[in-house]
Amino acid sequence: MLKITSAEFLQGVADLHQLPKNELKEVLYIGRSNVGKSSLLNKMCNRKSLARSSNTPGKTREINYYIVNNHFYFVDLPGYGYAKVPEQMRAGWKRLIEDFLKRGRPIALGMQLIDSRQEPTPLDLMMMDWLEYYEIPYLLVLTKSDKLPVSKLSKQLDTYRTRFSQQLNEGCCRGIVPFSIITGDGKLELLRMIDAHMNHSLDQKKEAV
Ligand SMILES: Nc1nc2c(ncn2[C@@H]2O[C@H](COP(=O)(O)OP(=O)(O)O)[C@@H](O)[C@H]2O)c(=O)[nH]1
Ligand SMILES: [Mg+2]
After folding, report:
1. Which residues surround ligand 2, an ion (CB under 5 A)?
2. Of 29, 33, 39, which is best to mutate to test ligand 1, by the most ligand atoms within 8 angstroms of its C-beta?
3. pLDDT per position as a tens digit, 91-106
4. Lesser CB count within 10 Å: N end or C end of the chain?
5. Atom 16 of ligand 1 has which residue's CA nearest to it?
6. pLDDT of the residue at 87
7. Domains in the chain, ordered, with CATH?
């Protein structure tokens, strides 16, 4: 089981020329503003405020790199979907994310976060389409699972599994995981999945040599 023993903020990237040059594996955190991205990242690292939990959603426009165990990166992509963001900024976000994905970074796993109480938004679906297109393995992480009664959460999981059965069976979606920073629900599962994908891609590389 993966154990996170150290995690440090490395850099914020606003211009893709600033991306780290080494080839450490990356785990992406993707989701709309306020979905619980910073909270998830902090919880995974057992830290209170490694990733800033912002009160002004839509403000972070940088791709934030964190180095974990001196061995791989957690990459916090800028949140999207904040209603008050001007159209120009929205277009800038889209370009940044797509240019980033096009670069063919060594991405081990994407974490697509969606609020467990809600349906995916059009931008969530667009992100999933991009992950599929670039063949990046990803998880759907249903955040704030503590806010739903157990029976409703399990119903919601069924709904998601049915709706995204094609992505689960034939595409790049590797699972749907409920998560809560309050109860710790999902944390072990996410650590296990990150670990598996990290090693999986290493093995693939070895085989290719
Ligand atoms: N109840 C509950 N609240 C959460 C959870 N995760 C995040 N939040 C709250 O949701 C809000 C947005 O979280 P944040 O991590 O800043 O979202 P981000 O904008 O996606 O980075 C904050 O008030 C968090 O405390 C969770 O698992 N359970
Ligand atoms: Mg945040």
Report:
1. 37-38
2. 39
3. 888 899 999 999 999 9
4. C
5. 53
6. 80
7. 23-208 (3.40.50.300)
Length in residues, the chain: 209
**Closest-lying ligand to the alpha carbon of 64?**
2
Token pair for 114: 């969606």
Ligand 1 atom with the shortest distance to the CA of 181: 27
Q: Using alpha carbons, list the distances in angstroms from residue 105 to 19, 20, 25, 87, 197.
A: 10, 10, 8, 28, 15
Count of beta carbons in the 10 Å neighbourhood of residue 59: 14
pLDDT at 209 > cutoff 50: no
Query: Which ligand is located closest to the Cα atom of residue 42?
Result: 1
What is the pairing mode between strands 25-30 and 72-76? Answer: parallel
- Pairing mode, if any, of strands 107-115 and 25-30? parallel
Ligand 1 binding pocket includes 81 (Cβ within 6 Å): no
Q: Alpha-carbon torsion 159, 160, 165, 166, what sign? A: positive
| CB of 114 closer than 8 Å to CB of 156 | no
Map tokens 């040599």 to a residue. 209
Q: Are 16 and 159 in contact (CB under 8 A)?
A: no
Mutation test residue for ligand 1: of 29, 40, 52, 53, the one with most atoms within 8 Å of CB: 53
